[in-house]
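Is it possible to get an amino acid sequence alongside its tokenized fold?
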Amino acid sequence: MNQYFSIINKRTVITLIISLLVPYIAYHFDIHYNIDLTLISIAIIFPLVFAIRGAFRRREKALEHLSRFRGSLKIIQYSFSANSKIPIEKKNEIDGILIEISDKVLNYLQNNSVSIQSVDESISKVEEFINKNDEMISGGFRLKIFGFMRSLHEGIENLEAIHIHRTPISLKAYCKIFIYIFPLIYTPTIINKIGFDGPEWITYFVVIVSEFILISLYNIQDQMEYPFDNDGLDDIKLDNFKINR
């Protein structure tokens, strides 16, 4: 049942109150008119759908960069593991560094429990390890590792960009404002179509359902645009991208 209530939050409660209050005021003061709602629908639905599509693309890009991130870590791990010149204790040391990088990046994305500067410090330990053990690491092997590190950096930097930069804030604010004021425009038109002699519950029902649909779409977009915090049903399962899962 949680999946059906995950999109309900305080914004839903606010729209429900507005949807109950506006029809009451309209009936009480005899407010009704007939206007074309097509333009109003475009003003809300079009930017809302645009924002949802943008959030979905961000989620797909995040999955792509997480896959590149984990793949680069695993290749670096395999490369050190297969190098016969490196003793087992040194292999365990570099494994610990790679696990630290994996854990810090995922913790940073999920809950900001570490800073991006701390992630950078952990990544620099790979270079420090190579420099300290240069007698065991040939020039060709060093270049190969640095090539894999490039893919690792690209994955992390792209994830950092997705983590910080969201869909346009002004567009989301615009959508939210129009969703909240939609009953003010919509309700008198519904009353005009039904007539004051018609049952009032139909007006309440239509306004409440319309507002619930709009705010639910907004909540889905809001959850999807930040796919790392496990706050929505479609969030990314970050544990699946740990180096040792």
